[in-house]
Structure formats: structure tokens, C-alpha cells
Structures
1.
Amino acid sequence: MPKKIKILFLGLLAPALLLTACQIRMPDSGPPKPAVTEVTISQSAPVLLSLPLYLADSLGFFAEENIQVRLLTKASPEEALASLMGGESAFALATPEIAFYHSLQQNAGPTVFLAQLSVKSGYYLLAREDAVSFAWPNLRGKSIIARPSGSMAEIFFEYLLRKNNLRASLDVPVIQNLPEHLIKGAFLAGTGNFVLAAEPLAADLEIETAAHSVAALEVPLDPLVTTVMMTTPDQLQNNLQMTQGLFFALQQALVWIDAHPPEEIAQAAKEFFPAYGERMLLRAVSRYKTTGCWPVQAAVETAGVHNFMQLMLENKELGEEISVEQFIYRLPAEEDSGEISF
């Protein structure tokens, strides 16, 4: 081949070879990745009962469902619900009575429960002095740092008082005007003979030997639902796929908690409660796990919501029975929620 033709031929061939090489080496991009949906969830002060929500985020279960969660902390459960109803958040984490009270308001928008996160009150009665044996009648005349009237903890507490022929305020002085963040300081300063505390505050007071747990606020009703993820019917209808993903992530977190020992759970929870030491957090997690505060299934038990409402009726927090069916929503994903394993 003449030299000029050879050079021309190689000049034409080189781009073709380069193009072929690029085509061969170019990776298959595959189908486009689903867009990540940002979801805002409102809550009041972070508590250990809400741990399934926090772990669903930190363990990557929300990410697996292409969900990015933004937690919005409000001053009270009522404000968290107001955030939901006002459209500031898509979901709210609260106790069932908040939704019951809301439903009785004139022109109140409907709420529904997507998932259950806890099935016990999570509260304990702590005494300033260690008691070898505790009896509820011994509370007569003793002052208690309690919780706001109408709140879940107060509903459970007053139920137990009545079962022991005691009346709040009349037989047992109750202090109900302290904000959550001031309770520990007030008790350490000498206010009250007893205090109602959830975890991790209960374990914190015990480790400091400032208080001693004498009773759990447990009522003889089973099942119970005490913490729910609530939303609105419009949110469910307009964002069904995202809502299913949120439910499934919470279900994964509950199964993970059930399958792992308190030591691993406490380690995973540490980032959400930086003010508390490892020993205290382990004590709190162990107590909640031992007493079955977290359910295995995220699907809301209708009977558990009904039993909660019965407590409110006994406490006269509700004037009449409410149909709990209006609050229960079933997602198709719930049919598969029991098939997760670790």
C-alpha cells in the first residue's frame, strides 16, 4: 500500500476505533433512580418511646424507600398536631388522646393513624426515698410532680389512683404546671415527694440516686396503643407510594428493635440523646424492651385504640364514646409487614 494511502487509512480508522472503545466501555446507566421525597414529621420533645422513628432514619430504612425525613420539634403535642393540620408537616407523632380531643372541635379536619410506635405508657412513678414495698394508698397526702391534665401520663395515673380509692388533687396533691425541661431541676431542688417520668429521664434520676422507681404506670388493658404516627386522609390519598414507604420503614425499625439486644439498641439510640450517658441509656432501653413498650407490628391495633379511649371515658376526659374506626387506616403494605427479618 502506498505510504500516503496508508497514512490516510490510519487517520480515518483511528476515530472509528476510539468511538468503538468508548461505546464498549460506557456503563449501562439502567433505569433512572427514583426521586428522593422529603417528608416533614412534627413531634414534641424527643422521647425514647419514639425510638422506632429515629432508628428508621439512622439505620437507613427511610433511605431505602427514597424518603428523607425532617423532624420538626414543637413545644407540645398539640402544637405538633397543629403543624400537621396547618400543612407545615405531613405527619405528626403523638399520643392518641391528642387526635380524640381534636376530633371534638368544631369544623376539625380528620386525622388518621398510619402506624403504632409504642404500646405502653412508658411512665414510671419515682419516689424521693427508696421504698422496700410500695402501695398506692401510701400516696395519700404526698405531692406528685405529674403531667398536664388530659395528657396520656395523667390519664393513666389518675386511673390507677381511682382504682386505689384516691383522687388527684383532693387526696393526692399534683403539680401540673412544670414544663418538661424543668421537671428534673424542680425535683432535684426539693419539689414533690414523687415524680412521674418517662425514659430516659427516669433512668437519669435513678442513676443520680435522686429518685427510685416504685411503680410503672401500667393499666390492666391489653392491647393498648400509646404512640401513633398520624396524618390526614388527603396526605394519604395524594402521596400513597411515599406513605407506604414510610410505613414499611417504621415496620423494619420495629423488627430490628425486637431482634437486637438492649446493648445494640442503646448504641444506636445514643446519637438522639446526646445529653445522657451510655449507662443511663442502656438502663432505659433495657427496661422498655423488657416490659414490651415497643410493638413488633406497625399496623395499628383497633382494639388498642379502643381501650385507650375507654380509659379516657373512665377519667371523664371524653363525654361520650367516639368511633375509633375513623382513625384507623390500612395500607396495602401492611399485608407484607410481617415478612421482614434480620
2.
Amino acid sequence: MTHQRNHDNLWQRVRKLKKVAPEEIIELAFSVRASAASVTLNLDKWTLSGHLEKTDAGYRLVKDSREAPIVRADGTVMVRDSGQQRMWRILQVRGRATISELIMYGSLENNPVSRDGAVTFAKYLEYAGYLRRAARTPKGARFAFERATFILIKNTGPVAPQITRAKEGRGKEVYDRNLRKTVWTTEKGMVEA
């Protein structure tokens, strides 16, 4: 299980529990497949950011949010804005895009989207059933994939699906953070709910 998934799962458990007593930390860590030290670190960061309050009885949720806050050690909240997230927003707004458009509209001056990054994003979202090619270029045409227009056909929410290394075996997987589940893997293809 990836660090990001542990982080998200921990936040969802805290939201559900509303309170976490010190004696519940080990059980909570086990349930999200993380170490007790990692769970405590996240709880302390969320306390610094104002999402939790630390009391004698443990931690109490005071500021809820759908997504797990990413908090720096000093308590400031980081904004999630990866290249994948920007490309996902482009597809949501426009409904379709080419690789060149994903690169052009998804790049920031200090954080550009690479051609390889855009191709990987589109390729795996196509495998996972989120994108469909509008029109294929003739077979054997050079760079056919990069010239294709991709249409968004599965919009599960505001957060971009993540393309990550598979947790088991080799290859990649597509994890949908809106659905909180793996939807496609290199080894298994589409994953049933």
C-alpha cells in the first residue's frame, strides 16, 4: 500500500471515528497498514493545522474535509496540484484533449508536464476505462497515440486517478481516490468492485 493511500485511509478512519484515544492508535495503525509512529505523526500534523484538537482523552476532529489534508511539519497545509491533477481538470472542463493540449494547459512555469508524463497519464486512464480515443490515426502512423484526441468517458469526481507502481508484483495500477479503490492493474486489467 502506498504512503498516499495510507494517509487517505487514515484520514477517512479519523473522520468516521471523530475521536482517537491514545490506546486506539495501534489498532488504527493496523487497520490502515501503517506504523503507530506514522499515525501519531499524522495526527500531530493535523493538530498543528487545526483539523484535530489534542486533549487528555486523545485527538478530536474539529475541522472536517473530504480529502486528507497534506500538512508540512510546521502545520501549514499544502495544496494538491500535481501535473496529473491539472491534466484531470483539463479533461473535466473540456471533455477532450490531445497529448499536446494536456502538456500545454497542464504545465505551469515552475512545474511543467512532460511529454512522457502526459502520455503515461492518458495511456493508463485509457486502459482503466476513463478515456476513449475520439478518432484513431491510420495504423502504423508515427506518433499515432500522441496525435489522438482523448474523450473523458468516466468522471468519478474532482481528484485525479493516480497512476502508481503496483503494490503487488511489477507494473502499474490506477487508483481512484474519489472511489478509494484500485480500478486497474497491469497484471489483472480492470478490477471488479
3.
Amino acid sequence: MGEPNPVPSSKRGVDGAEGSAKGGTDGGAGGLKVSISLLSADMFDLKDELARINRSSVDYIHLDVMDGHFVPNLTFGYELIAELKKRTGKVLDTHLMISNPEKYLAKYVASGADILGIHYEIKSDVTTLLQEIRKLGAKPCLVFNPGSSLSEVERFFPYVDQILLMSVNPGFAGQKFIEDTLMRGREVAAKIKKASYEIDLQIDGGVSDENVKAIRASGFNVVVSGSYLFRGESLEENIGKLRRA
């Protein structure tokens, strides 16, 4: 998975500031950042869906990029992200579910990705790619699938602004939440705190008002939600339910 290079790193959070002895950063009302998954939007009415998002208090737009190889599905690429960047002021939280991200990092950053996530499970040198993302000007995020070991997660702390733990198997929207992710979150949150890094801890998959209280108690400060947020008439009401839990 790639050994970290022996280069000193400042202990910084997702905003690039110097870190302190706490894990995660506050965001949004109540300290929870909400990242809305565009994959769950009505793609036949994307202009209006984006207008709804722009009017809302959501913090990030989560963009799931799938190549049909790393995961068995295809979505969109950097061309769509570039068009979104022209039409929103929201942070573009981009999750690359692709086999060879090293070929495309520069294009995704140039297209407007503010946060760029790559998977721990890829065969490339993860550490080098995280460093390259930061060098290109985006905030690096490392993503772990539900079945992946977290035993060496600390090795990547100097190179990330965010860690994403998947609470569903990646590739499709609307899956059932994997409860073991709560225990995994507590484990990573404790390691971040012990190491005195400010790193956002994000969760993605099956998040709703029914489980967000337990999610927050497990140390996550950023939630990705799609199916739940787009459900019903009021996007803002659903965001509020997550933040008030």
C-alpha cells in the first residue's frame, strides 16, 4: 500500500491550518459537516437539483467517480465536475473509485475537485499519490472499504486531510448501513486523537436521521448522505435533522 516517506509533516486539518491535540474539525451547525451525494439526485433534472443544493446549507457536494473496473458501475468524470464548478460555490468532495487514479489526479484537481479521495485498496503507491494531490492544490482523502484492515491507518496521517470509512460496499447507492463501521470509526478517531492530528473523519453509505446520532458518537464529523437527503420535499429539513441529532 506504500510506505510513508520519512519527511516531516505539519499536523493540519482539512482547512490546511496547523493541527492541535484533537481529532476532526468543526463544520456546519452543531459541528457536523454534511456532504450530499450527487449520485442520488435526479439526473434528468440535474439543473434544478443543483439549484436546490446551492440554496441549502449543505457543506459539500460528494461526487462518486466510478470506472466500471475498480467497482462494477460507471458514473461521471472530470468533464461534469468542471461544469459543476462553474455553477456552485459548494466544496466538491470527490471520491475516486477507479483503478489507476495516478493517471487522472491532475485532471480532477484542474476540473475543480477541492477534496480528492483515493482508495487504500488500489495497487499504486498510496502515499505518493496523497502527496501529489496536496501538491496539485487539493485536500487529500484516503478511503477504506468495509472489509479493509485499519491496522496501518496511522501511517497515512501526515498525508491526509480526511479519512473516509465506507459503511456500504462501494459502487451503488441506496445500500443498507454496515453497523461495524461505528466500531471502526471509534478506532480511527481514537488513533487520530492520540497522534494529535486534525483530520476529518467521514462516513459514506446508508446515513440517515435514524443512525446519525450513533455515527457522531463514534467520532465521525463529516457524513455523506444521498438517498436520505433527497427523500421528500424539503432538502433543508433533512439536513437539519442530521445536524440536530
